[in-house]
Design a protein that fits this description.
The structure holds 2 protein chains of 2 kinds.
Chain A lengths: L1 H20 L1 H5 L2 H16 L3 H7 L3 H5 L5 H20 L13 H18 L6 H18 L3 H18 L4
Chain B lengths: L1 H4 L5 H27 L5 H16 L4 H13 L6 H11 L6 H12 L3 H4 L2 E2 L5 E2 L3 E8 L2 E8 L3 H20 L3 H18 L2 H15 L5 E2 L12 E5 L4 E2 H7 L3 H22 L1 E3 L7 E3 L5 E3 L5 E3 L2 H9 L3 H4 L2 H10 L9 H18 L1 H4 L3 E2 L3 H16 L13 H20 L2 E2 L5 H4 L7
Parallel strand pairs in B: 5-10
Antiparallel strand pairs in B: 1-3, 2-3, 3-4, 4-6, 7-9, 8-11, 9-10, 12-13
Helix pairs in contact in B: 2-3, 2-8, 4-5, 4-8, 8-9, 12-19, 16-18
Classes of the chains: A mainly alpha, B alpha+beta.
Chain lengths: 168, 441
């Protein structure tokens, strides 16, 4: 158990290291950084696929797995920086109450990708490549400023107006 | 990257698109018959409505589904020819690979990053192709075009065709068995097209043929920088053939280009028995020194000796005008079948003869002017005549060997380009003499 935990921790450290060393990575927007990170991670775990398959036979196993505990901590430290950067760039909207669970959404995205990867029998796991793009797009489209933010903004404005009694 | 989110991609999502088309088409037909009852049927109006409907649905697809739809609909005449161009522009709106996915593809197939392979590599694609995108790169002072295939294209071909097929069967009113051979042919070509190693071999052969044609340029391909999903070739500089068609006012120059295309295509067909089967303007460009650049050899078709001899023997009058010889050849090429009734033999012989007379007219003449509107009108008229012939709307009316599908497609493409160039060209009609009558017995 300890050993497997360490192996996963190493995957995370190695992946982050590779990303930081990659020249192109610095130029990417947050969405692309997320993609690059996942592709690098999948590349790193590819050699150990058989082993990982035997450790994690079902989808549920990904969610509750203690083996991933340290890996998750490493991943979160990356994700927190990424979220900040995404906010600065306007890619990610900070929303009251739910902002704190953003890292969990990133975690869910990664686990979904990993479980897809584990079940992908296509040549060179090409289907996983497509899945990664789609999951990351969904994640970032959800976090990007959208109609709900505009609606909340409008609601807030109207409530304030009423409160101040200006419209009366 | 944003373009991806709006395109339906899951099998279910795509299937639902087709279902939608089926329902709407059914609706249009219902309206048609309702009109018929009250005596205001307008067949042309109905066809146009349905064509719009089908096109709207199909053009939302991408990759191979779009290609299959395009081939089946335009080549079989389900959709009018005008939609071919619309389809071409729909293809240009295909998906785009993100920078990280480009990197990932390189790592998977070469173990290296593009920066390690080339001296310079632009992560931003310069052009989209139907199943991939093109990047600009430099190596050893050479400007290169690097084509990268979208992931999962080959995997989706079979499921795509299974979704496209029912719609067409229904619209054409033919049985599944009667289109099976054509569908297989399309699938074979598409699967080949997803193998860039195959395309490279086609390109190398085309380069060899081009050496006999001073006005043709084929890019050099680099096997050591290519694999099944990545293809590296010399960058060809020039204006697109469409721009040339639109802007070039000197007819002599237009004719030079047209003749070069004709000579090159014929040389491929007659000497290599393998030819560029995707002759649309997007696959050609015109260099500053007035040469025709030919790119994208993904869709190439090989024909065997037996098919070649029978097919091109039809250029010979002693075959075409001899009822016994002719019937043998028609049977071999599947224009006629052993099971045909006397009426069917008569019907399919008449129709085939009409098509051959018209389509081979340029090949039989000393020189032929494609700017001649009369010829274009005759082609259109024949098309209409065939489409409106009720006797040809039976379930066994799909005729012609599957090998002829892509040959016809190439001729349609070639004639289309020549018509747009309004050029006068000479076809080589000596090859027919080389076909021995014994070979088609």
């Amino acid at each position: 158990m300890e050993l497997e935990r360490n192996i996963w921790k190493n995957y995370a450290e190695l992946t982050l290291e590779q990303c930081v060393e990659d020249e192109a990575f610095g130029e990417y927007i947050a969405r692309e950084k997320m993609l690059a990170y996942i592709f690098a991670l999948l590349n790193n775990i590819a050699d150990d696929e058989a082993k990982i398959q035997s450790q994690l036979p079902t989808r549920i196993a990904w969610w509750n797995n203690k083996i991933l505990k340290d890996f998750k901590l490493e991943y979160f430290s990356f994700v927190k920086v990424l979220i900040e950067e995404g906010q600065d760039r306007g890619e990610i909207q900070k929303r009251p109450f739910i902002f704190n669970i953003y890292p969990e959404l990133f975690w869910g995205t990664l686990l979904s990708v990993l479980s897809f990867w584990a079940n992908d029998t296509s040549e060179y796991k090409e289907q996983t490549d497509i899945a990664v793009e789609k999951w990351v797009n969904l994640l970032f489209d959800t976090l990007a400023p959208n109609a709900i933010d505009s609606a909340l903004d409008l609601a807030q404005f109207i409530i304030k107006q009423n409160f101040n009694g200006i419209t009366k | 990257m944003e373009s991806q989110s709006s395109i339906p991609t899951g099998k279910v999502a795509r299937a639902s698109k087709f279902f939608k088309a089926g329902v709407k088409m059914g609706g249009n037909y219902a309206a048609h018959y309702a009109k018929k009852v009250v005596g205001r049927a307008d067949r042309e109006d109905l066809d146009r409505k349905n064509a719009d409907e089908i096109f709207n649905v199909l053009s939302q697809l991408k990759g191979t589904a779009l290609k299959i739809a395009q081939m089946l609909s335009v080549d079989t005449g389900v959709l009018p020819k005008a939609y071919a161009e619309k389809f071409a522009s729909a293809q240009n709106n295909a998906m785009k690979l993100s920078g990280p996915l480009v990197m990932n593809t390189f790592r998977k197939y070469t173990g290296k990053t593009p920066q390690e392979i080339y001296d310079q590599f632009d992560t931003e694609a310069v052009a989209a192709a139907s199943i991939g995108q093109v990047h600009l790169a430099y190596k050893d002072g050479k400007k290169l075009a690097v084509k990268i295939q979208y992931p999962g294209v080959a995997d989706s071909i079979h499921s795509d065709i299974n979704m496209v097929k029912p719609l067409f069967l229904r619209f054409m009113g033919v049985s599944e068995e009667s289109v099976e051979q054509y569908v297989d042919e399309i699938v074979d070509r598409l699967i080949e097209e997803t193998d860039y190693v195959k395309e490279l071999a086609n390109g190398v052969e085309a380069l060899e043929v081009s050496l006999n044609h001073p006005r043709i340029v084929v890019p050099k391909y680099y096997p050591e920088l290519s694999n099944h999903r990545i293809l590296t070739m010399d960058w060809l500089e020039g204006q697109s053939l469409n721009e040339f068609i639109k802007n070039e006012t000197n007819q002599e120059k237009r004719d030079l280009i047209a003749q070069a295309l004709v000579d090159f295509f014929q040389d491929q067909v007659h000497s290599k028995r393998r030819f560029h089967a995707d002759l649309h303007p997007g696959n050609f460009l015109i260099t500053d020194d007035l040469k025709l650049g030919v790119i994208d050899f993904g869709c190439s078709k090989s024909i065997d000796e037996d098919f070649y001899n029978h097919y091109f023997s039809l250029i010979k009058d002693d075959v075409l005008n001899d009822p016994i010889q002719r019937k043998k050849v028609f049977l071999n090429l599947d224009f006629l079948r052993e099971t045909d009734t006397a009426e069917e033999v008569q019907l399919f012989t008449d129709v085939t003869m009409k098509i051959i007379e018209l389509v081979s007219r340029p090949l039989r003449s000393e020189s032929f002017n494609f700017g001649d509107e009369q010829y274009n009108d005759d082609l259109q008229k024949l098309g209409l005549e065939i489409n409106s012939n009720e006797d040809l709307k039976t379930s066994n009316a799909m005729r012609g060997s599957q090998h002829s599908l892509f040959l016809h497609r190439a001729f349609i493409g070639l004639f289309g380009i020549l018509y747009n160039l309004k050029s006068t060209v000479k076809f080589d009609n000596t090859f027919g003499r080389k076909i021995q009558l014994e070979s088609i017995m």
